[in-house]
Specification:
2 domains; elongated; 6-stranded antiparallel sheet; about 290 residues; alpha/beta; about 25% strand; Rossmann fold; binds adenosine-5'-diphosphate; Calcium-transporting ATPase, cytoplasmic domain N
């Protein structure tokens, strides 16, 4: 049976917009000594903005954008939403697509007018043997590249800003003596490193596929004494949320799958609430024991 004090703790947490799925997690979170963050939508706002768009190989810019938006219309990824919004605002109608396949950590493959279209990061084009301007892979910004029938057709540059309380979130964890903090991302290493530095996080892992994130969590969990919380918005991250000692989902942007599988849901979307949750857990433990 659950000691009565945990109900008080769960209630206190809910008044802060923190939903504990059970008293056991209120206890488990006080033992966490490592916090692993997803980047997009967790430490950053997850609201990308298209900064630039350039067509290549003789494609018209509007045609390239119509193709890209058509593909991205089949994804709920924050990058996809930003691209669709940008193209719509320009009054360009997305084209009709068939055979849409989302490729986690890469982008999408679709058919438009009988043509084979790839829209995603440079890794997607690498995987399919499509060449593109050499500089694109190393730009320290999020890049969406488009290829039609195996030919590079253009790219967009996007940016996403850190959440307002992301730096506070890291500082608050450190003040609780939780100093092992990492960020894992499918985004480029250069972007992840830059963000981590600006927030005071030492370990930044970029260019990860969803399976690589799982592997990093397994590596951490194999270390004796390591208690790991993972915080993510859940897009492509449900397996990592499930694996962590405490899985924490961001409730605002978070996917339904993430909210379902998480042990703790932060409804306000603020990563600083992780430290708040630890503090409430500690106070509750004092009451219970
Ligand atoms: P993260 O949330 O850590 O960025 P994801 O696995 O969700 O990781 O995505 C990794 C990368 O894959 C993104 O940064 C982006 O470059 C690319 N990507 C994923 N989905 C799409 C999409 N629908 N359109 C374009 N690029 C995408
Ligand atoms: Mg994600």
């Amino acid at each position: 049976s659950i000691p009565l004090g945990y109900f008080g703790g769960i209630g206190a947490a809910s008044r802060h917009g923190i939903l504990f799925k059970g008293g056991n997690y209120l206890d488990a979170i006080t033992r966490v000594n490592t916090v692993v963050f997803d980047k997009t939508g967790t430490l950053t706002r997850g609201e990308f903005e298209v900064r630039e768009a350039h067509a290549g190989n003789g494609f018209e810019a509007d045609t390239m954008l119509a193709i890209v938006a058509a593909a991205e219309g089949n994804s709920t990824h924050p990058v996809a939403k930003a691209v669709v919004r940008y193209v719509r605002l320009r009054g360009i109608e997305p084209l009709a697509v068939t055979d849409a396949k989302e490729l986690p950590g890469h982008g999408l493959s679709v058919r438009v007018d009988g043509r084979e279209v790839l829209v995603g990061n440079t890794r997607l084009l690498d995987t399919n043997g499509v060449t593109y301007p050499a500089g694109l892979a190393s730009v320290p910004e999020t890049v969406v590249v488009c290829a039609v029938d195996g030919v590079y057709a253009g790219y967009l540059l996007l940016a996403d800003a850190p959440k307002e309380d992301a730096a506070d979130a890291v500082a608050a964890l450190k003040s609780l003596n939780i100093n092992n903090i990492e960020v894992l991302s499918g985004d480029k290493q250069a972007i992840v490193t830059k963000l981590a530095k600006s927030l005071g996080i030492d370990k930044a892992y970029g260019d990860l596929l969803p399976a690589d994130k799982v592997a990093r969590l397994e590596e951490l969990k194999a270390e004796p004494g390591r208690k790991v919380a993972f915080a993510g918005d859940g897009i492509n991250d449900a397996p990592v949320l499930a694996l962590a000692d405490v899985g924490i989902a961001m409730g605002g942007l978070g996917s339904d799958a993430a909210i379902e599988i998480a042990d703790v849901v932060i409804q306000t979307d603020q990563p600083s609430k992780i430290a708040t949750a630890v503090k409430i857990g500690k106070v509750t433990r004092r009451v219970v024991w």
